[in-house]
Design brief:
The relative contact order is 0.07. The protein is built from five helices and no strands.
């Protein structure tokens, strides 16, 4: 395996470091709080000089993104379900009647359908 295919397969720890440093520099640019710039410089120099620091930052970044993804996916899907789908289902049930014929009308679920079948009914059954 060549190093080119290895780096394409997995991200290097420097990519996460670059993303964090860029975010900190942008935070400094918008807020003009010097602490963001200081943290960005210290993190960039420490990560470039000591590879273990870059690996540690990468591990923290990956752990944080997995945790945020796990939590946010459940929160977003739960919010969509309870805020959108549940009220729509309640309204549909309230105003549509029994379209699937799930409630028993008489003694049986059997439904008599008076229809004369023709040849065109079998051409496109769906």
């Amino acid at each position: 395996m060549t190093t080119a295919s290895k780096t394409n397969k997995n991200n290097t720890p420097y990519e996460a470091l670059l993303a964090i440093v860029t975010a900190l520099v942008l935070a400094y640019w918008f807020t003009e709080l010097r602490i963001f710039l200081n943290i960005a410089l210290v993190l960039a120099l420490a990560g470039l000089l000591v590879k273990a620091v870059a690996r540690g930052v990468d591990w923290l970044w990956q752990t944080l993104t997995r945790a945020l993804g796990w939590v946010s996916s459940r929160l977003l899907l739960g919010a969509v379900f309870f805020l959108f789908l549940t009220p729509i289902a309640w309204l549909y049930r309230r105003f549509s009647g029994d379209n699937l014929k799930l409630r028993r009308q008489k003694d049986s679920y059997f439904f008599v359908r008076e229809q004369e079948y023709e040849g065109k009914d079998l051409r496109h059954p769906w």
